[in-house]
Design a protein that fits this description.
By secondary structure, this protein is of the alpha/beta class. It contains eleven helices and nine strands.
Length: 307
């Protein structure tokens, strides 16, 4: 696939309507892959200041730091317990420094069979302004850190979603199999890069508890009404061609006592449907590469030049 001009778009994926796409089928005839992305993060007490974005209100910031620390101290265990009761594994968007700061959390994730992928080293260190080599070093550090806890680095989400176009090229060069930095589709899609193969796996900024609770000030009932509506529509559409639904969760949000029961109720709602697959993000990527990467790449190539 050729790249498009970056003065009008990213050049890393093209417009691709759902109509006419090759039909996708999932293991067991599932209509929908439902995956949970617990964001297990660490925010530094006094992070370096990025001129493009300030991580806290002031430095130091007791309120922001301690409220985020709640997720690792208390909230994580509530989420993990509810997921384990329903046999749903997590694919963890991990600040890899958690491996050093909270080794008991990493051990629990491994014991539960969860996947760990990289969300950078700290979620208070953005990629804005980083040189390509600085970005590459974060990827390398992530891979080496995860290897020490028995995990292979296959996936990536840039801290606070602050990538540059170079980021995706670096990921492909470093052997990362999937990225979550793009939000453009309900199915995995190949990216158009100079450096090799990389796919986007659907992540979500809409079905994400921080935007729901903190940005939009949704009540618990409003949050889970939206989640059920999202699930219902994708489940219906998945009868024609399978879809992916991600629910991005944060222990510092859903791990609070007043939200955890609604989270459990939503998981029960999802589990009440038969044609749902519960993979990790790595398993979604493996399925896609094996069955659809070449087919979809050829179809996308046939669209080149079309409006």
């Amino acid at each position: 696939m050729g790249t498009m001009q970056t003065d009008v778009d990213t050049g890393q994926y093209r417009y691709a309507p759902m109509r006419g796409r090759p039909r996708t089928s999932m293991p067991g005839g599932a209509r929908l892959a439902f995956w949970l992305a617990p964001n297990i993060e660490h925010y530094e007490w006094q992070p370096p200041v990025n001129p493009n974005r300030y991580p806290f209100r002031t430095l130091p910031d007791v309120l922001y730091y301690s409220s985020r620390d709640y997720g690792n101290r208390i909230g994580f265990r509530r989420l993990a317990d509810e997921m384990a009761r329903r046999d749903i594994r997590g694919s963890v968007s991990l600040s890899v420094a958690v491996c050093d700061h909270y080794p008991d959390i990493i051990q629990r994730c491994n014991d539960l069979g969860w996947e760990l992928f990289s969300h950078g080293v700290y979620n208070s260190r953005y990629f804005y302004g980083m040189t390509p080599e600085e970005q590459r070093q974060v990827v390398i550090d992530s891979r080496e850190t995860l290897a020490k806890v028995g995990q292979r680095l296959d996936g990536w989400l840039t801290p606070a979603i602050t990538p540059s176009l170079e980021t995706q090229e670096i990921l492909a060069q470093e052997g990362i199999r999937y990225t979550l930095d793009y939000f453009h589709d309900d199915q995995p899609m190949p990216l158009s890069l100079r450096s090799g193969k990389l796919i986007s796996v659907p992540y979500s900024i809409e079905m994400n508890d921080i935007p729901m609770a903190a940005w939009n000030n949704n009540s618990v009932d409003e949050m889970f009404a939206s989640l059920k509506a999202q699930f219902d529509r994708l489940y219906i559409e998945g009868a024609d061609s399978a879809r992916v639904m991600c629910f991005a969760i944060h222990p510092l949000v859903l791990g609070h006592p007043h939200r955890i029961d609604a989270f459990a109720e939503f998981l029960d709602y999802v589990k009440s449907h038969d044609q749902v697959w519960y993979p990790t993000a790595r398993e979604i990527a493996d399925w896609y590469y094996e069955n659809y990467y070449d087919v979809m790449s050829a179809w996308l190539s046939g669209l080149e030049g079309e409006l």
